[in-house]
C-alpha cells in the first residue's frame, strides 16, 4: 500500500478531476459528509431526547442540565481532537486514525440506538466524542496533504470540503427528525449509525488514492516510550472513573470540567509547541500569530454553537413551526444553516479565487466573522420575551443567514490558515489546536445556555452579541500586527 501511494502522489496533487480539485478530495469529502450526517442528525434530536418527558420518549432531565450535557459533549468532541492528533503524529499517521475513528463513531451511534436510557447516552456519547475528535482533526490534515504549500486552490478546496460537511449537516437533522417524530428517538439514532456505515464503506474503497504523505507519522514515538503512553492513557481513564464514582463529576457540572480541561490543554499545547527546539524562529512567530485568531475563534464558537442549546430550546418553545397546518420537527431548524452553507460556500470559494492576492487577510476575515456573529445575536432582541409560537419562522431563517455569513468568514478560513501556520513537526497537532478553540467555545456555549431563559432574553442576547462585536473590532484594529507575526502567511 505504501508503494501504491508513493507512485500516486504526483497525480493526487496535480490532477483537477473533482471540480478543479484533486480527485482524492472526493473520498475525504465523502467520509466527512457522512460523519457530519450522523453527527448532526444525532445532535439534532439529542437535547430534546434529554429533556422531553418519559411519556414523550425522552429522559425527563431539567432543560438547563440537558443543555449543559450537550455543550459538554460538543466540547468533548473537539477536545478529543488532541488525542486523535497525537496518535496520528506519533503512532499511526492521519489516514489510519481517520479510518479507525469512523468505526468508533459508528459504534457510538449504535449504542445510542440500542442501549436503553442513560446507559445508551453515556456509552454512545463517549464513543462518538472520541471517534469524531479523531476523525475531524485528521480529515482536515489529510485534505491539507492534497495540496502543495503554494497551491492557489487550497482555500477553494477547503471550501468544497466544507460543502461536504454541510451536505451531511443538512440531511442529518431532516431525516433523523422525521424518524424521531414518527417512530421514536432510537430510530433516529439508528439512522445516524447507518449514515456513518455508508461513509465508512465509501472511504474504504478510496483510501488508495490518497498521497503517501497522508499516512506519514511525522514525529514517531520511540518504541521505549509506547508503554509509558499507554500507561498514562489508562491512568487518565481511571482518574475520570474515580471522579465520577465519588460524585465530583456530575451531569450538572460536567460542562465546567470540560471547559477547565480545554483551557489547560490549550495552554499546554501552545507551551509545548512554542518551547520545542525542533521548530524554527519563523515557525515560532507564526504560532504566536495564531493566538489572537484562537481567541476570536473561541468567541465565535461560544455563540455559534448555541444552535444546539439555546436555539433548540427557543425553537421548541417560541418558534412558530406551523407550515401550512403541519408542525415542522424541532430538529429541522438545524438544517437551515447548512442550506445556506451549501448555497454560499461555492460563492465564497469563487470570491476568494477571483480576488487571489487581493482578498482580505486571515485576521480581517476572523474579525469580520466574530463581529457579524455578534450582530446575529442582536437580531434576536426584537423577538425576545415572546410567548409560544411568537417568533416567525422567516425571522429565524434570516438570523441563521447571518450566522452562515459569519461562519464562512471564519471556519473554513481557520482550517486553511492552521495548516499553513503549522510547524512541520506539529502539523496535525496544530490543527487540533484550532479544534481546541472550537471545543472551548462549544463547552462555553453549553455553560452559557444554563443562564438562558425567556425572561432574560434581551440581556442574554444583547450582552453576548456586544462582547463578540467588541472582540471583532479589536482584532481588526490589530490585524497588521498579527500579520507581521504570521511571517508571510496571509
UniProtKB/TrEMBL annotation:
Domain Major facilitator superfamily (MFS) profile: start-end pairs: 24-480
Places the protein is found: Cell membrane; Membrane
Similarity-based family: Belongs to the major facilitator superfamily. Proton-dependent oligopeptide transporter (POT/PTR) (TC 2.A.17) family.
NCBIfam families: yjdL_sub1_fam
Protein name: MFS transporter
Membrane-crossing segments per the record: 37-54, 66-88, 97-119, 125-148, 160-179, 185-205, 226-249, 255-275, 287-304, 332-352, 364-385, 391-410, 431-452, 458-477
Primary localisation category: membrane
UniProt-listed Pfam families: PTR2 (PF00854)
GO cellular component terms, A-Z: plasma membrane
Lineage: Bacteria, Bacillati, Actinomycetota, Actinomycetes, Micrococcales
Gene Ontology annotations of biological process type: oligopeptide transport
GO MF term set: peptide transmembrane transporter activity
Keyword annotations: Cell membrane, Membrane, Transmembrane, Transmembrane helix, Transport
Naturally occurring in which organism (per UniProt): Agromyces mediolanus
PANTHER family: PROTON-DEPENDENT OLIGOPEPTIDE FAMILY TRANSPORT PROTEIN, RESISTANCE PROTEIN MDTM, PUTATIVE-RELATED-RELATED
Source superkingdom: Bacteria
Membrane topology: Multi-pass membrane protein
Amino acid at each position: 500500500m505504501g508503494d501504491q501511494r508513493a507512485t500516486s502522489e504526483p497525480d493526487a496533487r496535480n490532477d483537477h478531476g473533482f471540480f478543479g480539485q484533486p480527485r482524492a478530495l472526493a473520498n475525504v469529502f465523502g467520509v466527512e459528509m457522512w460523519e457530519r450526517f450522523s453527527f448532526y442528525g444525532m445532535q439534532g434530536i439529542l437535547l430534546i431526547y434529554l429533556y422531553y418527558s418519559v411519556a414523550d420518549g425522552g429522559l425527563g432531565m431539567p432543560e438547563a442540565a440537558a443543555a449543559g450535557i450537550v455543550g459538554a459533549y460538543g466540547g468533548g468532541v473537539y477536545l478529543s481532537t488532541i488525542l486523535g492528533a497525537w496518535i496520528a503524529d506519533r503512532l499511526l499517521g492521519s489516514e489510519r486514525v481517520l479510518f479507525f475513528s469512523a468505526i468508533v463513531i459508528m459504534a457510538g451511534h449504535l449504542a445510542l440506538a440500542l442501549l436503553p436510557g442513560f446507559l445508551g447516552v453515556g456509552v454512545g456519547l463517549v464513543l462518538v466524542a472520541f471517534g469524531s475528535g479523531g476523525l475531524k482533526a485528521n480529515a482536515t490534515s489529510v485534505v491539507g496533504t492534497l495540496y502543495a504549500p503554494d497551491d492557489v486552490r487550497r482555500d477553494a478546496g477547503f471550501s468544497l470540503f466544507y460543502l461536504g460537511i454541510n451536505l451531511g449537516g443538512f440531511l442529518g437533522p431532516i431525516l433523523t427528525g422525521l424518524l424521531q417524530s414518527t417512530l421514536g428517538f432510537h430510530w433516529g439514532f439508528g439512522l445516524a449509525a447507518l449514515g456513518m456505515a455508508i461513509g465508512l464503506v465509501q472511504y474504504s474503497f478510496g483510501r488508495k488514492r490518497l498521497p503517501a504523505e497522508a499516512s506519514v507519522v511525522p514525529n514517531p514515538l520511540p518504541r521505549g516510550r509506547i508503554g509509558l503512553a499507554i500507561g498514562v492513557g489508562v491512568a487518565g481513564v481511571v482518574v475520570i472513573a474515580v471522579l465520577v464514582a465519588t460524585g465530583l463529576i456530575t451531569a450538572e457540572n460536567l460542562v465546567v470540567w470540560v471547559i477547565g480541561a480545554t483551557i489547560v490543554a490549550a495552554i499546554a499545547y501552545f507551551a509545548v509547541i512554542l518551547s520545542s527546539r525542533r521548530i524554527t524562529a519563523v515557525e515560532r512567530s507564526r504560532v504566536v500569530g495564531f493566538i489572537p485568531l484562537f481567541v476570536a475563534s473561541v468567541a465565535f464558537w461560544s455563540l455559534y454553537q448555541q444552535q444546539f442549546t439555546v436555539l433548540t430550546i427557543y425553537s421548541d418553545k417560541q418558534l412558530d413551526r406551523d407550515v401550512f397546518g403541519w408542525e415542522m420537527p424541532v430538529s429541522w431548524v438545524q438544517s437551515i444553516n447548512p442550506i445556506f452553507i451549501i448555497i454560499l460556500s461555492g460563492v465564497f470559494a469563487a470570491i476568494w479565487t477571483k480576488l487571489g492576492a487581493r482578498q482580505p487577510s486571515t485576521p480581517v476575515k476572523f474579525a469580520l466573522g466574530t463581529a457579524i456573529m455578534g450582530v446575529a445575536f442582536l437580531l434576536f432582541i426584537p423577538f425576545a420575551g415572546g410567548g409560544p409560537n411568537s417568533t416567525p419562522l422567516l425571522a429565524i431563517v434570516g438570523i441563521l443567514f447571518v450566522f452562515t455569513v459569519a461562519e464562512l468568514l471564519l471556519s473554513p478560513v481557520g482550517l486553511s490558515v492552521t495548516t499553513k501556520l503549522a510547524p512541520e513537526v506539529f502539523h496535525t497537532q496544530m490543527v487540533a489546536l484550532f479544534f481546541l478553540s472550537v471545543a472551548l467555545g462549544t463547552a462555553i456555549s453549553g455553560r452559557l445556555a444554563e443562564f438562558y431563559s425567556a425572561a432574560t432574553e434581551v440581556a442574554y442576547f444583547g450582552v453576548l452579541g456586544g462582547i463578540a462585536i467588541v472582540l471583532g473590532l479589536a482584532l481588526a484594529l490589530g490585524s497588521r500586527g498579527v500579520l507581521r507575526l504570521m511571517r508571510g502567511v496571509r
